[in-house]
# Entry
Amino acid sequence: MSLSVQKELELLERLAKQDAKAFSELYNLYIKRIYVYALSIVKSPMLAEDISHDAFVKLWENATHIQTDRSVQAYLYTLTKNLALNVIRKASRETWISDEIISNALANSEDGLQFTERRETSKFIKSAVDQLPAQRRIIYDLCRNQGYSYKQAAEELGIKDTTVNSQMVKALKNIKEFMTRNGALMVLYTLHFIYF
# Structure
């Protein structure tokens, strides 16, 4: 069900005056669509739920600044896309987010061919990681495989957070270069989507 232009303008005007009932009507009307859209980007139900709720929080916070020449739905989709992309970018720094995205993407869409490709991808990544310099390999293992934050890894190794960050950036670059040299273009695309 979609709103008429007149009804939408009326709800936006009421929303701009912090009318909770208008907000509730918009929320009930669009929350499912926004959730499904967020899920299509991040693949994780948990992350999609957070993102869709955050989109409505932003709608409430920005109510007085919303332009009335575009639909609420279009505005919410733009908010949702930006929030989802922020989560994906954050995944490069927080292992649990990338793990959440990967595990749900695999669980929800993997067939036999995809399983084989993933297994081959894992072998490529392992080979690439094995060729990293020792300290870089240890940092990568702590942050990617053992779930350490950059700060925790720095404390564990007695080095600065900035060193961990720098080594992780270099590790990902090394892995991508390895993939390119070995013709693993699909893997390269997957890494780019997950980590950047």
Q: What stands out?
A: Residues 109-116, 185-196 have pLDDT under 50 and may be disordered. The first helix runs from residue 5 to 16. DSSP finds ten helices and no strands in the chain. The chain has two domains: 5-90, 95-195.
